[in-house]
Amino acid sequence: MTGGGLFITFEGIDGSGKSTQARLLAEHLRSQGRDIVLTREPGGAPGAEEIRKLLVEGEPARWSPECEILLFTAARRDHLERTILPALASGKVVISDRFADSTRVYQGVARAGLRGLVDKLHKLMIGREPDLTFIIDMDPEQALSRGLARQSGEDRFEDFGLPFQQALRQGFLDLAAEFPARCRVIDGNRPVDAIAADVLAAVQEGAA
Ligand code: ADP
Ligand code: TYD
Q1: pLDDT tens digits for 9-37?
Q2: Into how many domains does the chain fold?
Q3: Is 83 a member of any domain?
Q4: Of the ligands numbered here, which is closest to the C-alpha atom of 187?
Q5: Ligand that lies nearest to the alpha carbon of residue 57, given by its number in the listed order
Q6: 33 C-alpha to ligand 1 centroid (Å)
Q7: 175-194: per-residue pLDDT in tens?
Q8: In this structure, are residues 173 and 137 in contact, taking their beta carbons and an 8 Å threshold?
């Protein structure tokens, strides 16, 4: 990790421990003197956070998959323009809790066979991939019980239920196989610190 920005994303099913690991990685790298921007999707910029509310609250059937793709992509474009690209340009490490892989899997695979549409829109409006992506893999039943226990009021996607989460898990594993150069699958069903150590080692290995 010398000079230049580095773009790292965390992906996985709801409740798999992405936010926890993104925060721990940010703390570790900050303690090593790196300039870190810790961010998330949907959101990560004021306008994108407004769009987030439309997406994560309310009834599961509130939006069609096509409308969701447009809203997630609009939020991502705002996040990219206002937060991610400026930070990378000034040499910072950007750590994002979710990014485009979530749309590929949630909207492109698990809800409807719309991956082609997701890819076209990504190419037109986003056109940027992370340097390194951690896919936190774990059993959906366990992850679901962790996620719903939080009672955050942002449970629209958790409310789709277990078969949906199982399809998501497989979707993320398939994605890791599709993009092996940047994706690392991490077993999330372990103590927080053991996972964090693997994540940090992979970042430092990439930097060597
Ligand atoms: P996500 O961002 O993927 O939804 P979170 O990091 O918010 O997941 O974690 C979901 C819940 O599970 C939180 O209550 C968190 O404290 C807990 N948690 C996270 N990682 C672990 C772990 N490795 N073992 C047990 N509980 C965990
Ligand atoms: P998030 O806040 O990361 O939820 P969690 O902490 O439960 O993992 O994301 C909110 C929800 O939005 C989550 O259920 C996944 C979904 N989502 C998509 O369906 N497509 C996307 O492109 C993104 C970024 C998120």
Answers
A1: 999 998 899 999 999 999 999 999 999 99
A2: 1
A3: yes
A4: 1
A5: 2
A6: 26
A7: 999 999 999 999 999 999 99
A8: yes
CATH code for position 192 = 3.40.50.300
User: Domain for residue 140, yes or no?
Assistant: yes
Q: Which two tokens stand for residue 174?
A: 């398939």
* Rounded Cα–Cα distance for residues 153 and 75 (Å): 20
Cα 126 from Cα 104, distance rounded (Å): 13
- 65: enclosing H helix or E strand: helix 65-79
Q: pTM of the predicted model, to two decimals?
A: 0.94
Question: Ligand 2 centre from 3 Cα, in Å?
Answer: 31
Of residues 206, 142, 190, the one with CA closest to residue 14 = 142
Which range of residues forms the domain containing residue 124?
A: 6-207
Please count the other Cβ atoms lying within 10 Å of the Cβ belonging to residue 44: 26
> Looking at ligand 2, which residue's alpha carbon is closest to its atom 5?
14
Which ligand is in closest contact with the Cα of 105?
2
Q: Determine whether the shortest distance from the Cβ of 165 to ligand 1 is under 6 A.
A: no
How many A from CA of 8 to the centre of ligand 1?
19
Q: Is residue 187 part of a domain?
A: yes
Residue 59: inside a domain: yes
Pocket-forming residues, ligand 2, beta carbon under 6 Å = 14-15, 18-19, 41-42, 56, 72, 97-98, 102-103, 106-107, 147, 157
Atom of ligand 2 nearest to the CA of 99: 24
pLDDT tens-place string over residues 27-84 = 999 999 999 999 999 999 999 999 999 999 988 889 999 999 999 999 999 999 999 9
